[in-house]
Amino acid sequence: MTHTLSRFVDQSSDFLGGMWAVVATVFVFRETHLQSLSAGIARLIATCVSFALCLLYLLLFPFTPVGMAALIAIGTVVIALLGRRDDIVTVGITTAVVMVVAAMSPVDAWQQPLLRLADTMVGVAIGVACKWFGSFLFHKFFVEQEP
């Protein structure tokens, strides 16, 4: 992710993109295929809620702490209304990260939600793929060889 972003964004956004993709990868790496896929879907839903709220806000207003608090509260209500109370924390964390980075890089701050959505999608895809590939290798070399 950092290699891909380096052509388009400054170094701090570049590093944050790599870190955020790693966070998403770790977030979805679970014990079973189904748990990994479910965690990936949950991460994407929470990120999409945060993405929509932050993008709309940053297109209209500059960062303020009160605005960030309002977005976290609205995100909490939205995700609860979607019946996904377990994802409230993820929406809050994602919103906080996007908004703080937007405050640190106020020029074109509206790009931050887009970048973090892309980072998350890459991280989720890598996490799910690695889990599935790792499980495949484990079963091929260790489980199938037992007498």
Which of globular, elongated, flat, extended, rod-shaped describes the shape? elongated
Beta-strand content: under 5%
Largest sheet, strands/sense/barrel: none
Distance between the termini: 43 Å
User: How do the helices and strands follow one another from N- to C-terminus?
Assistant: HHHHHH
Q: What does this protein look like?
A:
The chain is mainly alpha-helical and 147 residues long. It has 6 helices and no strands. It has helices at residues 2-5, 11-28, 33-60, 65-81, 88-104, 111-143. Helix 3 (33-60) packs antiparallel against helix 6 (111-143) and helix 4 (65-81) runs antiparallel to helix 5 (88-104).
Layout of secondary structure:
Elements: H1 2-5, H2 11-28, H3 33-60, H4 65-81, H5 88-104, H6 111-143
Helix pairs in contact: 2-6, 3-4, 3-5, 3-6, 4-5, 5-6
Descriptive key words:
mainly alpha, elongated, 147 residues
Could you provide a short overview of the structure?
The protein is 80% helix and 0% strand. The chain contains six helices and no strands.
